[in-house]
Design goal:
Blueprint: H1 6-15, E1 23-24, H2 25-32, H3 38-46, E2 60-61, H4 70-73, H5 77-84, E3 89-90, E4 93-94, H6 97-100, H7 104-107
Parallel strand pairs: 1-2
Antiparallel strand pairs: 3-4
Helix pairs in contact: 1-3, 2-3
The structure holds a DNA duplex (13 and 13 nucleotides).
Amino acid sequence: MPDLNFYDMVYQVVRLIPQGRVTSYGAIASYLGTRGSSRMVGYAMQACGNANPPVPAHRVVNRQGLLTAKFHFGGDLMAQLLESEGVKVKDDQVQNFKKVFWDPAIELEL
DNA sequence: CCCGTGACGACAT
DNA sequence: TATGTCGCCACGG
């Protein structure tokens, strides 16, 4: 395990996501100061399996609230996990996304 | 060392 | 509003 990098930063933020809430890759990237590096956030998620404690990557969706990561979770596992936490998911899309959206730049402001 | 790929996002048309 | 294109940066081959 190398030095602390962007990945751990992402993991920290993702771990701060309360149940029943979701956030977007761009929001995290922006919060970290790397607005355009939204892809890196997702890439970090892929390696999150090596993180400890595990990262609730299922709470991270794209800007549209679409479960883009479900493809990587396999099946509807991601949707099931979200619904289990109270997040309504329909057609791989988070319902009331605007309500359940958890923006670190706002929730963690200061 | 160079190239392609990728859990995204913003802007241009 | 919808579709297309570019940018962004890390990692694998």
